[in-house]
UniProtKB/TrEMBL annotation:
This is Sulfate permease. The gene is sulP. PANTHER family: SULFATE TRANSPORTER (PTHR11814). Keywords: Membrane, Transmembrane, Transmembrane helix. GO terms for cellular component: membrane. It is found in: Membrane. It is a multi-pass membrane protein. It holds the Pfam family Sulfate_transp. It comes from Pedobacter quisquiliarum.
Length: 536
């Protein structure tokens, strides 16, 4: 017996090592892709937020290593979010100092952790699939439109911007038009060749062992050096620019500590609450979206994710970083690069740290044009024409909320666009719900029509209007049977309508009979413990 159990244990360990090794073959290359995507985004978002560039890198490092380790999501990648730039910029100005602001970031992390403990992550289960798919498609379109100017060599807007109206007062389309009039030949050559490599390289299995984005970076650095001796040389602002540290002391000197003396400042708590709510919503949206495109179709525990994000923001704020969320762009790049487990996110954070410490001069040779190409191809994968075709085939109740979400996100921002998509989706949900509250059957005898109305299993307040309209349209001199045999619950307002109709029907010559309809109903109980186990 002992030998049998020992064999079984050894077999299990061998299997685990096999899958770990197998996953690492995909996670390591994917982590390099995510690192290359995250690097300019971390720097760009920090710049747009009015924060030190180092703060953006800290946030990316903490998001990768700390949140990656604590999160239950296997593919989500966390870091500074473009959707928070306006909030961060305004908060730094209103609080008077960056040290006070990062105290608010720490407190926001505490609030998020508390939200996770309070099971607030279940909110993520209520986002309709059509809206999530629309959000993903919109992010794809935005990536293409926003990165084209960078691919043309015009970098007036920060790399991670997702809002329609940019910080430089241009909008998505005017910025693209402006870029076409100010393009750089070197940037166009680099980005065009990069896109070609990104599309063709993965088709060759032997070559695919080396990530195409890494090849693109080497090509970009090589072409940058070639163009540097010509009249088409790239300017410093067209390159990645990370802080160069000369030694450990200089590195540790970049960290900023929170001003804990402002803990009683009510404005700090207001900023913290705002960040906690917005960051949590963006995280839940991102988690839902990434689960949709996960090839293995795993479901991430949302409450655990909020706690992981809370821990990440506490650490980030303490070290002088920005607030973070789970980010769709980096996460979708992870999926597209073949990432399989959370090790990809953890490794990407490690590469950010090592690049800052050991190879900043090499990193600063990377042209933004080749990284823009990586994001453009990522956008193309998110917004393929096939996605629009598939959503159209699902019917108008799916397609219209999908399209509205796409357009709204493109022309406003992520949260506003999703909110509008939710409104349209809820309209179609109510419309469908109204139609499904009862079943209607008419028979005819020699003298009168006989109508049997069979109520559905759940008849809620949302069904009230549909049932009211249906009853008022019943013709005179009719026999009506309202059957509640299948109903587990009937809302009190609906019961009142049915009883009033029965009471007044005789004035129209309508005879009403109620079958198996109780005078009161209690809401069906849900096994809370079971639901909590599912959500965790």
């Amino acid at each position: 017996m002992f030998m049998k159990n020992e064999k079984s244990t050894l077999s299990g360990l061998g299997l685990k090592k096999y899958f770990l090794k197998k996953n690492l073959k995909q996670d390591l290359p994917a982590s390099i892709v995510v690192f290359l995507v995250a690097l300019p985004l971390c720097l760009g978002i920090a710049m747009a937020s009015g924060a030190p560039l180092f703060a953006g890198l800290i946030t990316g490092i903490v998001g990768g290593i700390v949140v990656g380790a604590l999160s239950g999501s296997q593919l989500s990648v966390s870091g500074p979010a473009a959707g928070l730039t306006v909030i961060v910029l305004g908060a730094i100005a209103s609080l008077g100092s960056y040290q006070t602001f990062i105290l608010a970031v720490m407190l926001a992390g505490v609030m998020q952790f508390a939200l996770g403990l309070a099971k607030a992550g279940t909110i993520g289960n209520y986002f309709p699939s059509s809206v999530i798919q629309g959000m993903l498609a919109a992010i794809g379109v935005i990536l293409i439109l926003k990165q084209l100017p960078h691919a043309l060599g015009v970098d007036s807007d920060f790399p991670g911007d997702e809002a329609f109206v940019q910080s430089d007062q241009q909008n998505t389309f005017s910025a693209l038009e402006n870029a076409m009039n100010q393009f750089s030949v070197a940037a166009i050559v680099i980005s065009s060749l990069s896109i070609a490599v990104l599309l063709i390289w993965p088709k060759f299995k032997k070559l695919a062992l080396v990530p195409a984005p890494l090849v693109v970076v080497f090509i970009g650095i090589g072409l940058t050096l070639v163009f540097s001796s010509t009249g088409f040389a790239l300017r410093p602002d067209q390159m990645v620019s990370i802080p160069v540290v000369n030694g450990w002391n200089e590195f540790t000197g970049l960290f900023i500590m929170p001003d804990f003396s402002q803990i009683a400042n009510k404005d700090v708590w207001i900023v913290a609450g705002t960040i906690a709510i917005v960051a949590s919503l963006e995280t839940l949206l991102s988690i839902e979206a990434i689960d949709k495109i996960d090839p293995i179709k795993r479901v991430s525990p949302t409450n655990r994710e909020l706690m992981a994000q809370g821990a990440g923001n506490m650490v980030s704020g303490f070290l002088g970083g920005l607030p973070m969320t789970s980010v769709i762009v980096r996460s979708s790049a992870n999926v597209g690069a073949g990432g399989r487990t959370k090790m990809s996110a953890i490794f990407h954070g490690t590469w950010l740290l090592l690049s800052l410490l050991f190879i900043p001069f090499v990193i600063n040779l990377i042209p933004l044009a080749c990284l823009a190409a990586v994001l453009i191809v990522t956008g193309y994968k998110l917004a393929k024409v096939d996605l629009f075709k598939n959503m159209y085939k699902k019917g108008w109740d799916q397609f219209i909320p999908f399209v509205v979400t796409v357009l709204a996100v493109i022309f406003t921002d992520l949260l506003k666009g999703v909110a509008l998509g939710m409104v349209v989706s809820i309209f179609y949900l109510l419309r469908t719900n109204m139609r499904n509250s009862y079943f209607y059957r008419i028979t005819q005898d020699d003298q009168k029509k006989n109508i049997r109305i069979k109520l559905a299993e759940e008849v809620s307040f949302l069904n009230k209007a549909a049932i009211q309209v249906m009853l008022t349209k019943i013709p005179q001199e009719t026999n009506v049977i309202i059957d509640g045999t299948n109903a587990r619950y009937i809302d009190p307002d609906v019961l009142e309508i049915i009883n009033n109709f029965k009471h007044n029907a005789y004035t129209k010559g309508i005879i009403v009979q109620l079958e198996n309809i109780k005078t009161t109903y209690t809401v069906p109980k849900i096994d809370i413990k079971t639901m909590e186990e599912i959500n965790n």
